[in-house]
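ok so I'm stuck.
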Amino acid sequence: MPSNRSASSAVTELLAGLAPDVRTLARAVRKLLRSTLPRVQEIADKKARLIGYGYGPGYKDTVAALILSRSGVKVGLARGAELADPRHLLSGSGKVHRHIAFTDLDDVGRPGVKDLFKASYVAWRERRSLGA
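replied:
not stuck anymore, here's the structure
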């Protein structure tokens, strides 16, 4: 696991390569993730153009990933297909994972977004306590 300083530096470098409007959007979503997920670790993957959020170095401890693109960002939720989504914010057709798309700043404050982030964290804690 990289130190906070090197992780922060890698995140800053990754965000710097985005168009200004997408960078602003990514920063807002990142802020929401970090404020919602207690003591979350942040790991930048420059090659994959994403920032992982989790509680350990492995995939099994990943809760979410901020996926960066030219037109917006998505937050992939680990095992998101298992989460209740009463507001139908989750997209994707995979059997395991789902994502929430963000194309403008108004999307960040949509009702239910923060609830899904919290639910993903709670689900991770439950899996961890069961040893899954």
